[in-house]
From TrEMBL, chains A, B, C, D:
<dbReference type="InterPro" id="IPR006674">
    <property type="entry name" value="HD_domain"/>
</dbReference>
<dbReference type="Pfam" id="PF01966">
    <property type="entry name" value="HD"/>
</dbReference>
<dbReference type="InterPro" id="IPR003607">
    <property type="entry name" value="HD/PDEase_dom"/>
</dbReference>
<dbReference type="Pfam" id="PF19276">
    <property type="entry name" value="HD_assoc_2"/>
</dbReference>
<protein>
    <submittedName>
        <fullName>HD domain-containing protein</fullName>
    </submittedName>
</protein>
<dbReference type="InterPro" id="IPR045509">
    <property type="entry name" value="HD_assoc_2"/>
</dbReference>
<feature type="domain" description="HD">
    <location>
        <begin position="61"/>
        <end position="178"/>
    </location>
</feature>
<dbReference type="InterPro" id="IPR050135">
    <property type="entry name" value="dGTPase-like"/>
</dbReference>
Amino acid sequence: MTYSTEKLSEEKVFKDPVHRYVHVRDRVIWDLVGTKEFQRLRRIKQLGTTFLTFHGAEHSRFTHSLGVYEIVRRMIDDVFDGRPEWDHDDRLLTLCAALLHDLGHGPFSHAFEKVFDFDHEDFTRAIILGDTEVNKVLQHVGSDFPEKVAEVIAKTSPKKLVVSMISSQIDADRMDYLQRDAYFTGVSYGQFDMERILRVMRPREEQVVIKKSGMHAVEDYIMSRYQMYWQVYFHPVSRSAEVILTKILHRAKQLFKEHYLFKYEPLHFFSFFRENVTLEDYLKLDEAVIMYYFQIWQEEADPILSDLCRRFVNRNLFKYAEFDPAKEYKKMAELNALFIQAGIDPDYYLVVDSSSDLPYDFYRPGEEEERLPIHLLMKSGELREFSRESEIVDAISGKRRTDHKLYYPADFLADETTAGEIKKQIRSLLE
Amino acid sequence: MTYSTEKLSEEKVFKDPVHRYVHVRDRVIWDLVGTKEFQRLRRIKQLGTTFLTFHGAEHSRFTHSLGVYEIVRRMIDDVFDGRPEWDHDDRLLTLCAALLHDLGHGPFSHAFEKVFDFDHEDFTRAIILGDTEVNKVLQHVGSDFPEKVAEVIAKTSPKKLVVSMISSQIDADRMDYLQRDAYFTGVSYGQFDMERILRVMRPREEQVVIKKSGMHAVEDYIMSRYQMYWQVYFHPVSRSAEVILTKILHRAKQLFKEHYLFKYEPLHFFSFFRENVTLEDYLKLDEAVIMYYFQIWQEEADPILSDLCRRFVNRNLFKYAEFDPAKEYKKMAELNALFIQAGIDPDYYLVVDSSSDLPYDFYRPGEEEERLPIHLLMKSGELREFSRESEIVDAISGKRRTDHKLYYPADFLADETTAGEIKKQIRSLLE
Amino acid sequence: MTYSTEKLSEEKVFKDPVHRYVHVRDRVIWDLVGTKEFQRLRRIKQLGTTFLTFHGAEHSRFTHSLGVYEIVRRMIDDVFDGRPEWDHDDRLLTLCAALLHDLGHGPFSHAFEKVFDFDHEDFTRAIILGDTEVNKVLQHVGSDFPEKVAEVIAKTSPKKLVVSMISSQIDADRMDYLQRDAYFTGVSYGQFDMERILRVMRPREEQVVIKKSGMHAVEDYIMSRYQMYWQVYFHPVSRSAEVILTKILHRAKQLFKEHYLFKYEPLHFFSFFRENVTLEDYLKLDEAVIMYYFQIWQEEADPILSDLCRRFVNRNLFKYAEFDPAKEYKKMAELNALFIQAGIDPDYYLVVDSSSDLPYDFYRPGEEEERLPIHLLMKSGELREFSRESEIVDAISGKRRTDHKLYYPADFLADETTAGEIKKQIRSLLE
Amino acid sequence: MTYSTEKLSEEKVFKDPVHRYVHVRDRVIWDLVGTKEFQRLRRIKQLGTTFLTFHGAEHSRFTHSLGVYEIVRRMIDDVFDGRPEWDHDDRLLTLCAALLHDLGHGPFSHAFEKVFDFDHEDFTRAIILGDTEVNKVLQHVGSDFPEKVAEVIAKTSPKKLVVSMISSQIDADRMDYLQRDAYFTGVSYGQFDMERILRVMRPREEQVVIKKSGMHAVEDYIMSRYQMYWQVYFHPVSRSAEVILTKILHRAKQLFKEHYLFKYEPLHFFSFFRENVTLEDYLKLDEAVIMYYFQIWQEEADPILSDLCRRFVNRNLFKYAEFDPAKEYKKMAELNALFIQAGIDPDYYLVVDSSSDLPYDFYRPGEEEERLPIHLLMKSGELREFSRESEIVDAISGKRRTDHKLYYPADFLADETTAGEIKKQIRSLLE
């Protein structure tokens, strides 16, 4: 028996609140879970700052990664196995890609990538191909195996079916995170009948397709996704925390550029400030490290940095107002000027944040690869694009929804000991 | 309207996966939740190292504290309110004590308290009475209010009924954590019918009692607790992580005593090493800070400290064997000697850990205050100790169960490049 | 204390799997539940023939009626009570109307009403106003109280707010049945966040309105309803059973008209056959009685009646094919002729059944009273029709969806011992 | 391919609220479900009169039978398959026995068997071996197959392992009904971690055994069972309904013996009254038929029969008092005499009912076959009787618990228009 087909002497399970149990029989999977790069995902929250709005959302990317693996394992072992369109030799590749698909995520990825201009997907690739424990395990399977796994995750693999199992409009990734995020936040919106969807999935050369009889279950899944986006992922309070987080990173980077003397040297941040991050530096960064710095930065001399850190650590967030950039740009300029007059730096304290997207632009065939439409498999064997069959999905298909909000520190504006008159003006503009 | 009776203009809710919603109408409660000392509980896991065994157990003491508050609120508002035995004036006191009962917990409390010899309950008291945001809010209610809250939490309050709602054999604390820990780990054992138990609770001068008709629901709760202890809280894998954690702290303290030169100065630890911790120091310590140190200590020169930290961070835990101290003390001495011969320091790498306790010693009336028995309220109005009515509880009442395990690094012992013969001997003794 | 305000000495509860507990404090409600007319609802399934498709759907209208009562009770006691727009004097009226709203339902109402041309709502009114135990209880409250309750149920009451709590696009009736039917069938579609919806409901003079912040929860509810209709209520297999049931009743009525000599005199049916049903006759009819007749009719000499009854009792249902009446009327005529040639009476064995409706035509303001739109209560106090705010609901609003199917006995057509050639033709037309 | 190994072209599923889906691939199973004898189980409630206490308990033996089949299927396909101790040739036999194990149950079996002195297990055997659709399907597998299936159900089969999967202290039957009855009643007690128990089950020659690591999950299951018995199955209100039901049957039988002239001839009952029931008669009897008679018997001239029927149909049950037969036999004689004086026939209106049993006498090895102890499979391969390892189960093992209650018509006794003085005496004795 080679390493790639080696089974554990006894199946191992992880107790999982979403899937009851995650089952592992393959030695390779077991070894991957044990690597320090994979264990690192325990120290990165799946939903970043959302726990400040939904207090249950403290779950990590580790749990989500196991979940995606388990869904893919069930697809293969319970549904695809034995069907002529499914190549059994792709099994291990698919399981590994599922398990490792988020491996390159760092703490609060979104904000970090924006401020320090990098892409976590490059780090996923770097971890899989670099000098890491994960790479060693994958190498053990075959010298080109790391590259193959990386290609599936990067969606550049020629194995389109395998790619679609992990990254498509109805993939294991989304099916896990919707259910998991719903479970941990406690909202009911993320529930859909995954058992049913798995049962109606069929492998085809280009992608996973859905038997027509499962159409309603998929409609329900799409609606769940829509609701989760607007109810949870884009919740204005989480976005407020995200805004502050981003501004902390901006401020620290700015201070570094200006040769500000930090009370505690931010060693872990230097390569980020220089936008020259090595894999080793990157792997050292997790949420514990970030939170450590945010805590000690509360004591920094720079008033903006210390204030923003205090806000983030103690959940003293910005308030928000509806904002329409198309109509209200004049008001924005006015506010900007007033903030400066009031001595509150608008670069850090008057922030427009926009959520827009994907979840509402469900089915626009032919744009980027990930936007490939879901196909229904009709009784005749024909494939039909989903929105042609589903009136509900057709109705919402291609409609982009955008929401803009203006974030500001209500407590500063309420403090009338200085610039009272100007602050009053600001407040009346904001209401 | 005074501050103590002030209501929010509109009820606020927290979405909670266990209780659906946590409801807040009282201004005082809302203000307490917003304090930085309470927000700090977000950075301390409810179950310490258990997430290394049950990966879902990443929830914080913040969520649990809100849960205990909510249960007490429902007891009062839905069941006790209007009954002659319940003094409405105790409402706010009880809610505050429920919310704040775990306020003094630090990161991985158990290990920290053992190694650095302090009691988190003293810090709970210190936070409530000291110069803190929490104290300011409580002072606002009344100058003696902080002291009253502290007394309820310390179980020294003359208001025995109020104390029993938060600390007794069937209190809001336990009812929340059993359900919450079950929910986040995904095990089914922690479930019981809390709705029913709340409905049959009745206030009496000395304590909360249970209507006889609710006896079976309470039996089920007691069994849940028993199962949770042995299945989750005392799980040998979590204990392995706990053993390593404790040894890290021991080692660091020892190195400090020996004037070891740390590569990174452990500023946050100094006052702990000196066993002279101020409230300010204490509040700075949370799990992010601990994990930060454990990560950088992986690079320390001391091989024991760096090895143990690597183990904890990357979840490379000790294995365990059953151990009976009464019968196997000789074997233990032998193992100790062999470890030394093999160059593995037994003080850090050969550890006996014992779990024993309370959960099995359910109903021993008349020992410490917390061990007060549950009383059933009979139809006649008479009170009867629970185990006199319940055959099941009687059967297990007062039986202490203890479990000892021996923890060791299996990987070290498997490495036969050095001291191969001795390690072989050790392994055969351990099996 | 008068009867109308009399409370039970201790609250009674019914254990309910959907709402956990149904709480009763009011003597009037307790007495109504005990009447034989209300107990009769135990012998009428909530979902008629659906249990033949979803085997868990064996729950009765009794359980649903308690559920609607409980939801209304929570609306009033937990949300409306104390608000100026809510008249506390309407409480008992609303609770009684909620509890009794389905009182006139008979077994398999839909089919019975169609074949014997009556309306169960007339019987609801008759039971409330007639010589019944229910009437006695209501009379005890006040001599005009039965009439008031009947008016609310009939939607003719001037108390529009009360009516809307029980009959509107988002009422207690629908909220209970969606959740209950989902629970008992085991499908996940019927779930939505009722806790949230209750919390955002506000009484207004004309109707219950929804605070804007609850919009997404209501969207989710509307989608649940849509899914339940097409996935459960209009499931083609249940409709097949419904078709057979209807044809049994037709056949029995026809035989009666033709003075057919029944082996067992169908005493309970006589007044239905004559379309001259008294209240007393009506109340004697429940599903047990119907099933009794269907069983003994299996032994009747008339081959159509006995065959259809055997099919229904033993779940040997008709198969179905898609059918488009607009395009396929010629094919239908052809099939009709062929059935006659094959000796299979098309009046009973070739049936078009159409489902269409309401669930998809969600929000057409201004049609029948029940179709009144849901109104959102904006922060400004203004009311806005729901679909103007919700893009999703707007997208599906007013779109009627209809589905036609053709039902036939596949087993008859497969039996080629007679008319083999003709049956082959029929089969090829049907495929 | 022979019939016994024939697979459906596509797997069929039944939506089930307890197991999510019941999966059928085997043609034989599919055909058995379609027989009229199996469909008949839809017309027999799983919990008899319990729905009068827990209104959700309206589920049928049909749903339970499918559930037991599904659990056994999962045991075999997910856990036993491929293990040397499991004979793959026993698969179909086990599945059929699981599906059909309750086939001979009639309506309200317990009461019927007591009054008319028969055993439903004889009818199970008769249906399997007699001239039935079920027999035809089984014959199709092999001429001795019906006999083999009957033997497994009767526990006389030499295949002890197979028997133990369906009838033992931890079998598929109990695992389904505990979960199912908990689900439909809505109580939380019946929940346990079946996934875990299935995973630790191992086939051995004599019986299914449990891996030591699953001990706690089995403890939890045993406690669930204990709770379900005393909380649900022996609920005094259900027992009251059961008492009345039994008395109706007694009365009808007695009247028949006395040549009473029934207004409506009870054709379906004649062979029962004569205690000479044929299979054909038996199969005609279901709950619809029983309820039909109970309804028409409300109009019988015999005051006892009509009164008892009215009570049952309209849920006007007897009240109960605690009763200790050992101490209170004198009081019982006194009450008997007073009832006669008051003109209330004590044979029908003063009834002692006792619940005692099995659930509490959990583990008495060596009595009847069904009482065989559960065995734990130790790491060493040794088997140990469960209660030797589990302190909790040891504590309750072998302890019989009995509960006696005295049932009587409180309404009769409250009516003081006749025999007022005597009734007062009775009431004071009963309180």
